[in-house]
Amino acid sequence: MLQQVNGHNPGSDGQAREYLREDLQEFLGGEVLLYKLDDLTRVNPVTLETVLRCLQARYMADTFYTNAGCTLVALNPFKPVPQLYSPELMREYHAAPQPQKLKPHVFTVGEQTYRNVKSLIEPVNQSIVVSGESGAGKTWTSRCLMKFYAVVAASPASWESHKIAERIEQRILNSNPVMEAFGNACTLRNNNSSRFGKFIQLQLNRAQQMTGAAVQTYLLEKTRVACQASSERNFHIFYQICKGASEDERLQWHLPEGAAFSWLPNPERSLEEDCFEVTREAMLHLGIDTPTQNNIFKVRRKATSLMFGRDDGQPFS
Ligand SMILES: Nc1ncnc2c1ncn2[C@@H]1O[C@H](COP(=O)(O)OP(=O)(O)OP(=O)(O)O)[C@@H](O)[C@H]1O
């Protein structure tokens, strides 16, 4: 039963609809100012149309973050916006007496969470849930948060502990290209779609410095190895190996130059994520040395050679 619509007491459903229509018109009439609404709880009346119009107005004004109470709505800009993620901006949010008074940003969430750990007498674990549909920007957002913590949670006093913190920071950031190489693939919606879920745990000591990180992955879409929807691709790592292996490695891994594989469709698409060197470099930083890497790729290559199948129908030796 309808009791009240935006302060009106309607006598009937018809009247309620009329009031709603008037309120809607009034709200959208001042549309030029919609981009200034940085909290969706201030949208009135709350309808799908008003919320979307508000987000659209902000998007047009290159404003990609909007609060919705204690939730942050992030719009994917689909273009590089480097000034939005600079270390200077990270420090600004970190140093602000009240970060929630600054413009809505993923760094506000990061900083508030960081302070919540610190401000309690007994530190309490904090969680940030990043959700959205495929291509919405979850991986990007998680990466941003990791970079943010790597910057703000790594300012120890002594040179020695500074070095340790720096190493942890690098390892945390380097875990991304490795996980993405092995667990991401190009889909119709996203060139770099994560085909697994992940739970990332960042560990801080009592002084709020980063001491480690752990990543748990789950629900890897293993079937993609053998079956890809048309116009989609297999996991990046396979293309990286095929495109980036040196001549020596090709010989070792029995990987003829230019060979086509039926289970590696659309290899002609050249993606930023195809860079084998980036994965190898990141693995090195994670402590996986070159011989171990070679063993991994050899094992991967052997396991997959049975499956890839060559387009000419020839089995692999
Ligand atoms: N804040 C941002 N700034 C610039 N580009 C972005 C931003 N967020 C997302 N993108 C772009 O959108 C693409 C898709 O984002 P992302 O991979 O994070 O989506 P996702 O939600 O993790 O998708 P999936 O669920 O498929 O893994 C990124 O590769 C990047 O190009």
TrEMBL record:
Keywords: Actin-binding, ATP-binding, Motor protein, Myosin, Nucleotide-binding. The keyword ATP-binding applies. ATP binds at G132, E133, S134, G135, A136, G137, K138, T139. Residues 35-317 form the Myosin motor domain. Transmembrane segments: none annotated. One of its GO terms (cellular component) is myosin complex. Pfam families: Myosin_head. Belongs to the TRAFAC class myosin-kinesin ATPase superfamily. Myosin family. This is MYO19 isoform 19. It comes from Pan troglodytes (Chimpanzee).
